[in-house]
Write a structure and sequence with these properties.
The complex is a heterodimer of chains A (about 475) and B (about 450). Chain A is of the alpha+beta class. In chain A, about 40% of the residues lie in helices and about 15% in strands. In chain A, helix 8 packs antiparallel against helix 17 and helix 10 packs across helix 12. By secondary structure, chain B is mainly alpha-helical. Chain B has one domain. A three-stranded antiparallel beta sheet of chain B has the order 1-2-3, with no helix packed on it. The chains are: A alpha+beta (about 475), B mainly alpha (about 450).
């Protein structure tokens, strides 16, 4: 009977080898597919079950993971949720992640390649995996001031440090509280999400960078001015500034805001035109420069660029091949011009930083659980749209706007403020969008800001950038000066 | 003839002691890791646990020295290592359930079963001083096996748990008599086959170039086939059915040395399985869950949910596993019993699973080695049958979890939570110890 026993033991060996092959198939070859299977809650649990790193503003965690006694182990917690929602986004078991929670996910969750050595040392020491902390460039005081001064009005505020590109404030209104979407009860989270979706004013939309882009209105005159300075004009160059500008090849004419007259003799300097935001002179100037010149200048300031700060920014747009009449309209920020509030803040920042535009960014540094810096964003020059002297000349013109022009509401006692207002028509019935872009102090700027208030916001009566948006910008700049020192 | 006693026959007891130390180290280390990752590590408690293992290993060692001094030295350490890993994993799953608010004490209960099992194994080598004694009880064993198999079908004591009617209720405890019936049947088959092997080996008609047995000798095979089919249909227990039939066919082959019996047996089982699958919906749905486990309709109907969740678990373990206490084995239903292999695969990875399967290979190969070494036909059949029983059971359970065959409700020997299985498998170890002792013992030369 020994021969069949030997054969039987070979059969037994083959049986167990089959099991080994099957296990190898499941655990190695098919593992990727199985792990990616939507029905596999394990991946989800594992991700949610590890300690996720905090999101830090000014050295304090505004988002962190709190240990809780449920299957997920940790509850994502948001201090000042509505205030920072635009930057942090949410982290939901039902709806996934947005904003920094999404773009920095592999760092926060600890799975990023750059955390390899940290993970390896954890493996050796037996410590559990902990995510990295992400410190934002936001300045809590500036962010707070921006949110408070914008109030209930629909709109957005972006403040940049012009010398580095750091985003000091990014506020969108209305906003939401990420905590309502971060709960572990999916029914409640679902209900809260549906409620947010149902709101017509879109609280989940980040108007500062990724909402509908807005017609920049008169703030676009800064681009035309910059193009003009480069083309050889200066602040004192005389422009043709009629009460009504005939639009070539049409029967229509273009007037000024409220039908005002820019100049009694139809002549006006470039500086005066900017100061009082004359439409006819800038429309005419745009046609004289040619659309290509204006367009190139705008592109140097960032139009058309797909920015990632690392949140994805909707590219700002310009019309392609407009005819002369369209060029006239586009030169005063109407027609098909569109810009995000971030884009307009970049225009202010570029002028403020002696004509050098720094690439905007929101993540300052990333530290692992042992607080070692593993990533740090270095300020980076994005473009140089203006020469230093042109930038200084345009700055002086913008100071004029605030001291004696349309932007007087942005004045700050003892500090020279440079700015430009904008009042963009959106349609016949709607109230206009109002803008203010500017920076302070004018000679050595610490903050550049763009404020957009949709349809004039809650302001009653006359709706202009100078009346609605300028006071908000002033509050933001004051906060920045107080927090960052304005010398 | 004094020369015989001069030849030193290595008992292997010292080597066994070393291996036992290794097995104890694995068991204690595994539990230490589990406690550490559950933030429950208390060194004095672990020390008591370690001391307990050392005492148990010591007792086993001394008992084997005393009553079975030539027994196979590798068998018990391999079993003990598996048992220790199982205990740690079950305890780990207790912690996982506890963190979700479900209080279980599987780990502690299993320690009691383990001690009882070891006690039974030692009792076997103490009481059964010569395995040939068992041959006298051939037909008694057959009857005991049959009763064990049928008990769950009896009213009052028989209970149906999770769709399978393989349990009986004794003093409030659930027992799986099928586990013990398995041993009884192996004894019966061995006794029956050793007496009738000559008849069964007689040549019959030649079909397709293979010589088949005479039709009139096919009675026993047909009888076991019918019994297996009944178990599959009425107890809804595909596993036990396959196990018993498989053991019989394997032992029939060993006894007769005729491959035609295997062909015949496999053919009959295939016919039966297909027939049952078409005629009975509960068998058919098992097949569907196996073949189309990942189909969303099958999954969402719940038919393959457990299987697929086990696959997810193993996949997440990958090559090296999440580490003991770091995975989520509790996401698989019955992670501590039917699916303990998936739990181990998740936390110890493919590497750990390979090691565990290798331990089974070692255990089964030692049994086969014993079968070859032992001198009597009954012993050969008994050892080969018991070894094959363990191997086939592992194949059926692990094969079910890894989708090699349809999922059935058998337990993984020595690893899974469950008293009946633990006791029965340790009895098998005791029997193998006794047979191997006699196989390796030098011939006593009578003057």
């Amino acid at each position: 009977m020994n021969e069949p026993i030997r054969r039987l033991s070979i059969v037994v060996l083959a049986m167990i080898l089959t099991l080994m092959v099957a296990a190898s198939y499941i655990q190695v070859i098919a593992a990727g597919d199985l792990n990616a299977d939507a029905r596999n809650v394990r991946t989800l649990y594992r991700e949610y079950g590890t300690f996720r790193g905090p999101i830090v503003v000014d050295g304090e965690s505004v988002v962190w993971s709190k240990a809780v006694d449920d299957p997920f182990n940790y509850q994502r917690t948001y201090a000042d949720g509505p205030l920072y929602a635009a930057a942090t986004g949410y982290y939901s078991i039902v709806f996934g992640r947005t904003a920094i929670e999404q773009t920095e996910n592999d760092l926060l969750s600890g799975t990023a390649d750059s955390l390899f050595w940290t993970r390896l040392s954890n493996l050796v020491s037996g410590e559990t995996q902990r995510g990295a902390s992400v410190e934002l460039t936001l300045d809590a005081a500036v962010q707070q001031a921006a949110a408070e001064s914008l109030g209930d009005s629909a709109g957005a505020v972006v403040a940049l440090d012009p010398s580095t590109g750091e985003v000091l404030a990014m506020v969108t209104s209305p906003t939401y509280d990420p905590a309502t979407l971060a709960g572990h009860d999916s029914a409640t989270v679902n209900k809260n999400y549906q409620e947010l979706l149902a709101q017509e004013d879109g609280p989940l939309v980040n108007r500062a960078i990724a909402g509908d882009t807005y017609p920049p209105g008169s703030t676009f005159k800064l681009i035309v001015s910059a193009a003009a300075l480069e083309a050889g004009y200066d602040a004192d160059s005389e422009l043709y500034a009629p009460d009504q500008l005939e639009l070539p090849n049409t029967s229509r004419t273009l007037g000024n805001y409220g039908g005002e007259s820019c100049s009694a003799n139809e002549r006006q300097t470039l500086a005066e035109s900017l100061e009082m935001s004359c439409n006819t002179s800038f429309a005419n100037l745009g046609m004289q420069l040619g659309w290509g010149v204006v367009e190139r200048k705008a592109e140097e300031f960032g139009w058309g660029e797909q920015l990632s700060i690392p949140l994805a920014v909707t590219p700002s747009r310009l019309p392609s091949n407009p005819d002369e009449a369209q060029t006239a309209m586009a030169s005063i920020g109407q027609y098909d011009d569109r810009a995000t509030p971030l884009q307009m803040a970049m225009v202010a920042a570029g002028i403020a930083n002696d004509g050098v535009l720094m690439r905007p960014y929101l993540v300052d540094n990333v530290r692992d659980a042992d607080l070692r810096v593993i990533e740090e964003t270095e300020p980076e020059e994005m473009s140089q749209p203006m020469t230093r002297s042109d930038a200084n000349e345009l700055t002086d013109m913008m100071v004029g706007v605030v001291t004696s022009g349309t932007g007087t509401a942005a004045q700050i006692p003892g500090v020279e403020v440079a700015g430009k207002t904008g009042t963009a028509e959106t349609g016949t019935d709607e109230r206009p969008h109002t803008w203010f872009v500017g920076f302070a102090p004018a000679d050595n700027p610490v903050v550049a800001v763009a404020v957009l208030v949709e349809n004039g916001g809650s302001t009653q009566g006359e709706v202009t950038g100078g009346r609605v948006a300028a006071p908000i910008a002033r509050a933001v700049m004051e906060a920045a000066l107080a927090s960052r020192g304005g010398s | 003839m004094a020369t015989v006693s001069d030849v030193m026959v290595r008992t292997g007891r010292r080597g066994e002691l070393g291996l036992l130390g290794l097995a104890v180290a694995v068991a204690v280390l595994a539990r230490g890791l589990v406690d550490y990752h559950a933030d429950y590590l208390e060194l004095d408690e672990l020390a008591i646990y370690a001391a307990g293992w050392i005492v148990v290993a010591g007792v086993i060692h001394l008992a084997i020295r005393r009553w079975a001094s030539y027994a196979d030295p590798v068998l018990v350490p391999a079993v003990l290592a598996l048992n220790g890993i199982g205990l740690a994993m079950i305890r780990r799953i207790d912690f996982a359930y506890a963190s979700r608010g479900r209080d279980t004490d599987f780990g502690e209960v299993q320690i009691v079963w383990t001690l009882l099992g070891i006690g039974l194994a030692l009792l076997v080598i103490l009481l059964i001083r010569d395995y040939r004694l068992l041959r006298r009880f051939t037909y008694t064993a057959g009857l005991v096996g049959l009763i064990g198999l049928l008990l769950p079908l009896m009213p009052v004591i028989g209970t149906q748990i999770n769709g399978a009617r393989i349990w009986i209720n004794v003093f409030g405890k659930s027992l799986q008599p099928g586990e013990f019936a398995k041993i009884a049947f192996v004894v019966f088959f061995a006794g029956y086959l050793v007496s009738n092997r000559d008849t069964l080996a007689l040549a019959g008609p030649k079909i397709l170039g293979m010589r088949f047995p005479r039709p009139r000798d096919m009675g026993p095979l047909a009888l076991v086939w019918v019994a297996a089919m009944l178990v599959q249909i009425y107890e809804r227990d595909l596993g036990t059915s396959l196990l018993l039939f498989g053991i019989f066919v394997a032992m029939l082959y060993v006894a007769t040395e005729r491959l035609s019996w295997v062909v015949l047996g496999l053919g009959m089982f295939a016919v039966g399985a297909v027939l049952a699958g078409t005629l009975f919906s509960h068998v058919g749905s098992r097949y569907t869950a196996w073949l189309h486990a990942l189909d969303s309709s099958v999954y969402s109907s719940g038919a393959s949910e457990q299987l697929v969740r086990g696959l997810f678990g193993m996949a997440s373990g990958g090559l090296f596993g999440t580490g003991l206490g770091e995975g989520r084995p509790d996401l698989v239903p019955y992670a501590e019993s039917d699916f303990i292999v998936a739990s181990l695969g998740e936390e110890l990875g493919l590497t750990g699973l390979m090691a565990i399967l290798t331990l089974y290979v070692i255990i089964v190969q030692r049994a086969m080695r014993t079968a070859i070494g032992v001198r009597h036909g009954f012993g050969k059949l008994l050892a080969a049958g018991l070894g094959f029983a363990i191997a086939l059971q592992v194949f059926i359970v692990v094969g079910g979890v890894t989708r090699v065959i349809p999922l059935t409700g058998l337990t993984t020997p020595f690893l899974a939570y469950g008293g009946s299985s633990m006791l029965a498998n340790w009895i098998i170890v005791g029997l193998l110890l006794r047979i191997s002792d006699q196989a390796r013992r030098p011939e006593v030369v009578t003057p």
